Amino acid sequence: MEVSLRSVRFTCGRCGTTYRDGLLLGGYGRLVVRDATGRHPSVADLMADPLVDLLGQVAGERAALFARVATTPADVQGAYLRLCDPSPAGLPWDRDALPCCPSCGAQPTAHERLEELLTTDLPLLRHGAFDALPREQQRAAAAGALTARVPSR
Ligand SMILES: [Zn+2]
């Protein structure tokens, strides 16, 4: 899927290499994520994905049952990412991972937004394993993903 990104100059925190990559400009129902190492950028098309509707529905039912359970859009996004197939490296998706250093693979410690835009074609996140579940198990998996706690960073 084609996405417009803002070009950003990153500085590696380990070896000092500077490199350019892109970050998403305003979401419009899309999410660009990388795996936990900052590799394999991929895009989620949240507006067009029925899994998001299912998560919203399950979250609403939970809120009706347990009055104090509030679900934020970030919770739904986190649950969505937990239900997606892992990255090509077999790792979970991480909303906060930045493009890693091309020289040493570390995360950047500084970044500077540049004026130009970058249009790039990113693979769409998939949830084939989830889709293969029977309907009732899908609801249970959605509820489990909404309940899972995000490990603190
Ligand atoms: Zn580096």
Describe the structure.
This protein has 153 residues and is of the alpha+beta class. The chain contains four helices and six strands, in the order ββββααββαα. The protein has one domain. It has helices at residues 50-65, 73-83, 128-131, 135-147, and strands at residues 2-12, 18-24, 30-35, 42-45, 93-94, 108-121. A three-stranded antiparallel sheet has the order 2-1-6, with no helix packed on it. The longest helix has 16 residues, at 50-65. 21% of the residues are buried. The mean pLDDT is 91.
Quick structural overview:
The chain has helices at about 50-65, 75-85, 130, 135-145; strands at about 1-10, 20-25, 30-35, 40-45, 95, 110-120. It is α+β, with helices and mostly antiparallel strands.
Give the helix level as a range of percent.
25-40%
Total number of beta strands:
6
Q: What distance separates the N and C termini? A: 30 Å
Sheet of most strands: 3 strands, antiparallel
Provide the descriptors you would attach to this structure in a database record.
153 residues; alpha+beta; 3-stranded antiparallel sheet
How would the blueprint of this fold be written?
Elements: E1 2-12, E2 18-24, E3 30-35, E4 42-45, H1 50-65, H2 73-83, E5 93-94, E6 108-121, H3 128-131, H4 135-147
Antiparallel strand pairs: 1-2, 1-6, 3-4, 3-5
